[in-house]
Specification:
36% of the residues lie in helices and 11% in strands. By secondary structure, the chain is α/β, with parallel strands linked by helices. Helix 3 packs parallel to helix 4.
Length: 433
């Protein structure tokens, strides 16, 4: 396939929320208590909610910086490429990258809305959460018809309220829900528990994909605190195998046969062995572990339920039939440091060498359209949705890397270790003036 003929839909990107996002959506009774952005004397911007500072407006939102300045920054809107938080600029950045559609996880509330779990006033937290979803669906996605897949967060403290929110946003056309890949790690019942049944049932009823993004419970996985940060970044996608095993052997997938789960930012290269191992474990051990998949193998159940995605994964694509072509989609991860923006089509083609066109179409956009109930061609003619057509609309978009803060070249003084990053994050989380 010619690169200009690709149609690309990313099922894992991120939005940095603009400071005015709550103005049109928060109920009047809560307006004075809604989250707001405060510009501090040190030049940083923070969200303030219930007297607490949310320390990083856009963790690792480094698109447009020179790679040597990547890190846990930025800490101010002035350090961000406008496409992180401004809708028109985001569409420009999608066009220049040849990307038709995007599913965007939150930033300041955390990827799954974990921030509101700690709220003292759950009535306020619920109102703010719903206002967040309304902004995301009506303004961020609704402001550019056909360009985004809406994604909602839910009130994690109450599965019945979660189910109600799933149904409420479904009526607004949102059929993707962000949830924790390991809720036990954030003080909630594990994925094994029936506690979550009202939520699972609502998602199945409404055809809502449950999106489990790395870092919504598991956090960083690191061998040792003095391990280079490279070790952590290497492990990130494969760490989702832990969540996959937890779900596969839980009652959830068999109890809810139509439930769909997306493993976000998990890649696919590890999946063939994972499935091979799962089938072997079932065959060898089920008589004493008392697992029962009836007439199916664990690998079949996995493929029936799971949606996977990759950024650059030549090994995974070569083994795509062992993964299941019907399960695979693509991601850009804009604006994070793992993203291939603004040359995603070029990098993607490295993984697609030798792949038949029908399978390319399935993995780059058709699976996403089908699984997320996404219908961009109602708004954008298909011939205008290709990489070539979109890039033609972005002729004036500047992608020149620009210094926006972070570490200057050589400033780190050597290899960045996990412990340094953990310390940096811990310091940021402290509610400092």
């Amino acid at each position: 396939m010619n690169i200009d003929d690709l149609i690309l839909v990313s099922v894992d990107d991120h939005v940095v929320e603009p400071p005015d996002m709550f103005e049109q959506h928060i109920p009047r009774k809560y307006r004075e208590r809604a989250p707001r952005v405060v510009h501090k004397k040190d030049g940083s911007d923070v969200w303030l909610f219930e007297g607490r500072q949310v320390p990083n407006i856009g963790l690792n939102a480094v698109a447009g910086r020179p790679p040597e300045e990547y890190g846990m920054e930025p800490t101010a809107y002035t350090q961000l490429r406008p496409g992180c938080y401004d809708l028109a600029a985001r569409v420009d950045d999608m066009n220049v990258n040849g990307v038709l559609g995007s599913l965007c996880f939150p930033s300041f509330p955390s990827f799954c809305g974990h921030l509101f779990l700690a709220s003292e006033d759950k009535g306020l937290a619920h109102a703010v959460l719903q206002a967040y979803n309304d902004w995301h669906i009506e303004e961020w996605c609704g402001g550019a018809p056909g360009r985004f897949i809406p994604l909602a967060i839910t009130p994690l403290w109450d599965p019945k309220l979660m189910a109600e929110e799933v149904r409420r946003v479904a009526r607004k056309g949102c059929h993707a829900i962000s949830f924790s890949e390991n809720p036990e790690k954030i003080g909630l019942p594990s994925l094994q528990q029936p506690h979550w049944d009202p939520f699972w049932q609502a998602c199945q009823d409404e055809g809502a994909v449950v999106c489990l993004h790395f870092g919504t419970g598991q956090q960083m996985v690191y061998p040792t605190l003095d391990a280079p940060m490279d070790a952590v970044i290497t492990l990130m996608p494969m760490a989702m195998a832990s969540c996959a095993a937890d779900l596969l052997w839980s009652p959830v997938l068999r109890k809810y046969p139509k439930l769909e789960i997306a493993l976000s930012e998990a890649s696919i290269g590890w999946v063939p062995y994972f499935l091979e191992r799962a089938d072997y474990v079932y065959e060898t051990h089920h008589l004493w572990t008392h697992q029962d998949f009836a007439d199916k193998r664990p690998s079949e159940v996995f493929r029936e339920h799971m949606i996977l995605c990759f950024i650059v994964d030549p090994v995974g694509v070569r083994n795509r039939h062992a993964v299941g072509v019907e399960t695979i989609s693509w991601e850009c991860d804009f604006p994070h440091s793992d993203s291939t923006w603004p040359r995603s089509p070029e990098r993607l083609m490295e993984s697609l060498e030798g792949v038949p066109d029908d399978e390319i179409r399935a993995m780059t956009y058709q699976n996403a359209l089908r699984r997320f109930r996404y219908e961009p061609f109602q708004h954008i003619p298909k011939q205008q949705a290709t990489v070539g057509a979109l890039r033609a609309q972005a002729a004036g978009v500047d992608t020149t890397p620009r210094s926006q803060g972070g570490l200057a070249p050589g400033e780190s003084g050597g290899i960045v270790t996990t412990g340094q990053v953990v310390k940096q994050l811990a310091t940021a989380i402290m509610n400092l003036e």
